[in-house]
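User: Show me sequence and structure for the first protein, then do the same for the second.

Assistant: Starting with the first protein.
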Amino acid sequence: MRAGITVAVTGGLAMSTATTSTATPTASAKPASPTHTALPAAAGSAAAALGSAVTAPVIVLPTASVPKLRMGSRGSSVRRVQRIVGVYADGVFGPRTHRAVKRFQGRKGLYRDGIVGPRTARAMGLTYRSRASSSASRSSSRSSSSIVYHARRNLGARYRYAGSTYSRGFDCSGYVYRVFRNAGVRIPRTAAAMDRRARRVSYPRPGDLVFYNYPATHVGIYAGGGKMYDSGRSTRGTTLRRLFPGRVHYGRIG
């Protein structure tokens, strides 16, 4: 009897099959008992090496952020929680959602109050967003809108070196200073001092500051779409125009 060993390595697993060729059986021949064939050492090493090289892909999912949720809450954050606790996602935190959250808290060993606070949110794989951070975000958005609004209102004023009023005219920093003061935001008077006060950002949003050179020798207000409000031309005064080439960087107040 001749035995052949075939080794296949697939996905880190080694499989062996034994093929046997025998002569024509005779009456006195006894059936062979099954035997287990050991893998050669080289085949085992190859399988182990391949198994260590094949790994499952790692998928990183974004973590959702939710505020405190309780009876009466509504919106997309409620729908997200409802899907996690296994109830119909209608976006309304009613009695059914309240009971489902309490069951979830019980399974996780949490206090069963039916409120999605910091600990419950973490157990659900969510990021808890406090009321203070939500209010700060809304306040920042309102401030940016107010700055852009006042920047538009002060367009058309003439250019005047060291000027900081609409009637007398503006220079670049005087215009920015007046716009921010009208929006209720206190900032320094000169471009260089504004640059030192601002927090550097890579991707500006409307209402951010546009600085040229280090230290800053010119400043404007970013309007979006690659444009800015500024007072930099003695012949045109305060205008909305495209950013011009130069050593530009951006800053955010607040």
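Switching to the second protein now.
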Amino acid sequence: MADDRVRLRTTFDAAADLYQQARPDYPEPLYDALVHGAGLRPGDELLEIGCATGKATLPLVRRGFHLTCLEIGSALAARARHNLADYRNVTIIEEPFETWQPDSDHHFELVFAATAWHWIDPTARYQQAWRALRPGGHLAFWTADHVFPAGGDPFFVDIQKVYDEIGEGLPSGATRPRPGQLPDQRAEIERSGLFTDVRVQHFDWEISYTAQQYLWLLDTFSGHIAMPIAKRDHLYSEITRRLAQRCDGRLHRGWGAVLHLARRT
């Protein structure tokens, strides 16, 4: 698993040109909850882990915060600099969080990761975040995941058969969580012994995609980027064919995010 994590987390750089437009925007109420829960004020200094092209960076920069962003992909970092070029209150650094060392007298109000925390070495991520925060500062992370509303689009059950046929099926025991039912990492945070006052909040939304838009989205997922070309071509052909049979040619995908927020001890 550790080898897969290290290998797959570098695949996203190949999708730098698609990432900003294809990946979903996080809902504004999530940012509202983050800012309120962490007691942030304009001008506060924030550290973002794995900013990619700036999906979560831009909304927080616009709110007046000063961001230092770490990104391991050179193409993603270049795209982030382009997307954030109009703002002076953001710095992009190309370095892994695990090895990055802040100045000894420089600490942040918030360390956060948007759909990136699970790629960080689990043996070091809480300790590194604790060191980067000022006393009483906050750690936050969330991930955009697929959720399956009751009565939702049956497309995903149907297309799973194709994933199974090409040997890319779901792992044993995988579930299809409903909105509000994504698992959280409260216990893991508490076990670290480095953070307290752990709060968890669920956010759910839905996006409609054309076939091309959905393929662009899949092209930003590590498993699809790393998939053998023949398998990916067959899968994409089936997605396109099946959506072409629909009157509107679209699918509806449910998204969920679990915001974790915890205070540095």
